[in-house]
Amino acid sequence: MQTPTRTRHHGQMGQTQVNKEDDNKKTDEELVHLRREIGLLPAVSFIMGTVVGSGIFIAPKGVLINSGSMGLSLLVWGLCGVLSLFGALCYAELGTTFTKSGCHFTYLLETLGPLPAFLRLWVEFLFIGPAATSLVSLAFGRYVVEPFFAPCAVPTMLIKLVSILGMTFLVAVNCWSVRMASHIQVSLTFIKIVALVLIIIPGVIALVKGKTENFQNGFEFESLTLDRLPLAIYNGLYAYSGCSYITLSVSCLNRNIPLAIILSMVTVTVLYVLVNVAYYTILAPTELLLSDAVAVTFATYALRGLDSAIPILVALSCLATLNGGIFVSPRMLFVGAREGYWPQIFSTIHIRRHTPLPALLLMYPLMVIMLISGDISQLMSLLSFSDWFFIALATLGMLIHRYRFPLHPRPFKVPLVIPVTFTVVSFFIVSHSLYSDPWNTGCSCLLTLSGVPVYYMTVYHFCLPPTWRRIFSKSHNCKAF
Questions:
Q1: Which positions, given as ranges, span the membrane (predicted)?
Q2: CA dist 356 to 98, 207, 244, 338, 408, Å?
Q3: pLDDT by residue (tens digit) across 259-301?
Q4: Domain count, the chain
Q5: Which residues face 38 on adjacent strands?
Q6: Residue 393 within any structural domain of the chain
Q7: Which CATH number fits the domain that encloses residue 340?
Q8: Pairwise CA distance, residues 123 & 74, whole Å
Q9: Within the chain, how many helices (H) and strands (E) appear?
Q10: Does an H or E element contain 330, and which?
Q11: Considering the entire predicted model, what is its pTM?
């Protein structure tokens, strides 16, 4: 491993021009850096693979409970799709305006300054990355183990063991090869789309045949309250989360990022609405609300003979989401270290594999610890506040940068109403999480703010005594062997 540098081929005196051209070709092949090797199709696969995960199989219950009726819940799913598309388009503008890798870190650094950018790295390493990975890993482990124990209770330790095995496998893949991780993502994305289509088809067929009794009273406003509707939107947005990270490793930024985001998010929104239509066609509201695994319950009614395959397909869907998270999170830390805002060891990569091996290996223990110590609801509550807070800051920073630098080149620019709407909604989600779950949200807020003194001690340490500056400089500049 070594820090990313360009290896220059020094020829001897008197070489011909042809040999120099060959050397230049070799030099381009021998560059040691994280390459943008993800084209349009893998980019769409990574976005859809990251977005379409366990959320669509878990969130329908929460959306229905808080919206109060099937009709309103379908509207919530469509609204969440539109909001997610707005956010994705904002990130498309950010990704094409600031073409350096780093995603949230780069956008915050360029628009709001070094402190918000450092805090994003801090929470990404401390709990957002590990918590998000552990959350999806636990869902993966549950759906793998559940068919072997139904109808009995599944041992918790066995779920966590299988979750760790799945996580370890994908960490190893991402340490080994970017292309292998990309190919796995394309394959798993195809499988999860097949799973969604397998749910949609019998539901649509039953609807065409006249099974519409569940929709006769689809819009009932009696059970709707304004304080619960935001919770329905929050559950729906969780199922759409993850679309912003693809800007880390997409090639041909100006063309591929906007096109990949639009194609993938429109497709995901249509699939999500159709899946919920299928759920509501086959299952009565009470049946859906009593189910802890909606897709499995749906399969027992509509896919007899294939009901045992649905948990495996859901597990593979979670695996694709897990692979996308493991792929992008270390790269943000890699870029932060390369810019001098994170320990330099995170900027080292494997000299032949061109993967961020140290960042992956240093994050792996935190993933395992968080997986063992937490459950799905705790992990979701822990990461939600900081994740949405920095998403809102990124789009707010984009608006501020537009105002301050109106002549800055923007190859892809969204209408002003889109970032304004998305920013307001994002800050509303953050404020509502403080109201609905003050304990977990408060812990997340404190962990985020704990990065402020760390920033002043390690990055902006000019006001410290000379002895302290030397100590923190040595620890900050530690390198791999």
A1: 38-59, 71-92, 125-145, 157-176, 188-208, 228-248, 260-282, 309-334, 355-373, 379-400, 412-434, 446-464
A2: 21, 49, 20, 12, 31
A3: 777 888 888 899 899 999 999 888 888 888 877 667 777 887 8
A4: 1
A5: 250
A6: yes
A7: 1.20.1740.10
A8: 34
A9: 20, 0
A10: helix 309-338
A11: 0.77
